[in-house]
Amino acid sequence: MYASLAVKPQSLSARYRRRLAHNGSSSAFFLGAGKSEQQGNNELLTTNANLLAGHQIVSPTLKTRFFAAVDVKDRDFTMGGEDEGTNTGERVSVQLTEGRKSAIQFDIQGSYTTTHNAYNLLGRAGWPVGDMTVGPEAAITGSDHYTSTRVVVALSDWRLGSVNVTVRTGYAFGSDDAGGGDQPFFCAIGHTAILIAA
After folding, report:
1. Which residues pair with 108 in a beta bridge?
2. Which of 25, 127, 133, 191 is the 20 to 30 A CA-CA neighbour of 43?
3. What is the rounded distance in angstroms from the CA atom of residue 74 to the CA atom of residue 86?
């Protein structure tokens, strides 16, 4: 079993994992918590917090994860029909990763949250290039108030010392109200994790 602490810009998350069985494949139970913030014009706009529990099954080629969580969002502004204030909702999500030890890797993720019926679906493929993974990625997100589709090229697992960097660049197609409209997309995220084995 182990515990991990992940630090990203404006976010912090912690998880505990305990292996349950091992017979050519492994199974593990997760507990976790996280907090993130969104800022704009040097002002705090949104604070998100969550508590989650999940289960992971890993075979030689396929990794499957299921999560259930309680999400709390505190918004300091009104956007696209989502009022300011605090909202609490339940979230379920699943992640499938195929070809973990192959020349090409496929990843599919999906989630649904009861708050404003928010949803997220992501699919990507990646090829190893040196110490990095590069490939196309497509994502569809939305809620009762907006929709957005993103098509990008993603560079992930780029390690700079103890920091793992992910860069995405491409184009986003969104509803005009809260989806941001159609516009170029760029995102770069770095995170580091502290592993505590037991």
Report:
1. 96, 123
2. 191
3. 4
Bridge partners of 69, per DSSP, are 52, 91
d(CA 83, CA 127): 42
Q: Is 12 helix (H, G, I), strand (E, B) or coil?
A: strand
Name the pTM for this structure: 0.75
Contact (CB, 8 A) for 17 and 198:
no
Measured in Å, how far apart are the chain's first and last C-alpha atoms? 6
Query: Max alpha carbon distance in the chain (Å)?
Result: 53
Q: How far apart are CA 192 and CA 49, in angstroms?
A: 19
Q: What is the spatial distance between Cα 113 and Cα 90, in angstroms, rounded to a whole number?
A: 6
Amino acid at 197: A
Compute the distance between CA of residue 95 and CA of residue 89 in angstroms, rounded to an integer. 20
Distances (CA, A) of 23 to 16, 26, 27, 91: 22, 7, 9, 31
Three-state DSSP at 92 gives strand
- Sketch the domain layout of the chain as residue ranges: 58-197
Q: How far is CA 52 from CA 4, 16, 35, 41, 49, in A?
A: 14, 11, 12, 31, 10
> Do 110 and 122 form a contact (C-beta atoms < 8 A)?
yes
pLDDT in tens, 68-119: 988 887 766 555 556 667 788 899 999 998 865 677 889 999 999 998 898 9
| Neighbouring C-alpha atoms within 13 Å toward the C-beta of 153 | 3
